[in-house]
Amino acid sequence: MQQVIKVSHVSKVFSRGYFKKHHKLVLDDIDLEVSEGDRLVIVGESGMGKTTLARIMAALESPSQGKVLWFGENISSMNKGEKKLLRGKVQYVHQDPYSSLHPAKTIFRTVADPLKNAQKIKGKELRQKVKELMEKVGLTPAEYFFNKYPHHLSGGGRQRLAIARALTTDPRVIIADEPISMIDMSLRAAIIKLFKDLNDLYNIAVVLVLHDIGAAKYFTYEKGEVAIIYGGKIVEMGEGAKVFDNPLHPYTKVLISSSPIADPQIARNRVVEQLRSYEVPERTPQSKGCPFVHACNYYVERCMEQNPCLEAVEDNHWVACHLLVNKDVDI
Ligand code: SF4
Q: Residue 297 falls within a domain, yes or no?
């Protein structure tokens, strides 16, 4: 399968201050690959670098170090025309569908305008194509919505519209940043199901940024990979079923064990490991050691000094933890 996006040794540093610069390490040496038809979820709490990573993958931001390839080409060495040609193939869906949609444009025009630009079609053909795209994302009957505006839709409806607009350029990958965080609980599963369908039916690779571990499991358990990110670093990655059935990194274990459970009896009886600290200290390019060391109950001296690399623990399952990779201690 064709590789769509490759992220190679990407780090990102944000700097602030005028006279005395302060540097914050937001992403730390990230490697990822997405091929046609893949499903990938990037999971972690707020402030861990997920959105920055997604924006760098979509070329909305540049890395401080490392490179991003689209279809095998380094995007930093593409000229404007080459980038424009490929931009339609890599679509980004924003977290807040309302602010990303033009409030004064009808729903028909929201989908038709980019379609006209991308596919140079008009008249009946354009109308038919808009109808097809709206049906693809579940906005049916399409004609009923044509003359309405984004504010007439629910949060879930607006997200569907944003996805229909993303499909106008026939993308090979959709990167969606927290696509369910601003919509009602009851509609969340339907939006994740829509992404699953787009992946299954049209072989579009889908990258979701989520903090909801239940949604991440629903999206990747049968097919796909999950990357757990902490302090700007991928600490565990692998097939969804392997990571959710056998989480290994101490952070992944806590994240999964503390996610909400529907059954109140099970929720009451479960034991959630307490961390040494719940603060997330800011990292700088000079920071040493494992990013999780301040919170980890299993740390050893080496964790203070050396930042562990992702290493394979089984087929399609990688962990960045000194103890797990070296099997010194059974966690
Ligand atoms: Fe904990 Fe050390 Fe593993 Fe980091 S490397 S998760 S501090 S045991």
A: yes
Domain residues for 214? 3-89+173-182+210-326
Is residue 219 within 8 A of residue 196, CB to CB? The reply is: yes
- Ligand 1: which atom is nearest the Cα of residue 308? 5
Question: Residues lining ligand 1, judged by CB closer than 6 Å?
Answer: 250, 290, 292-293, 296, 298-299, 303, 308, 321-323
Contacts of 165 (CB under 8 A, 6+ apart): 101, 110, 111, 114
pLDDT tens string, the chain, 331 residues long: the values are 899 999 999 999 998 887 778 899 999 999 999 999 999 999 998 889 999 999 999 999 999 999 999 999 999 999 888 888 888 899 999 988 778 899 999 999 999 999 998 888 889 999 999 999 999 999 999 999 999 999 999 888 999 999 999 999 999 999 999 998 877 777 889 999 999 999 999 999 999 999 999 999 999 999 999 999 999 999 999 999 999 999 999 999 999 988 777 777 777 777 778 889 888 888 999 999 999 999 999 999 999 999 999 999 999 999 999 988 765 555 4
Picking from 293, 295, 294, the residue whose alpha carbon sits closest to that of residue 323 is 293
Inside any domain, residue 129: no
Question: Residue 238 maps to which CATH number?
Answer: 3.40.50.300
Domain presence at residue 142:
no
d(CA 135, CA 117): 21
Calculate how far, in angstroms, residue 308's C-alpha sits from the geometric centre of ligand 1.
8
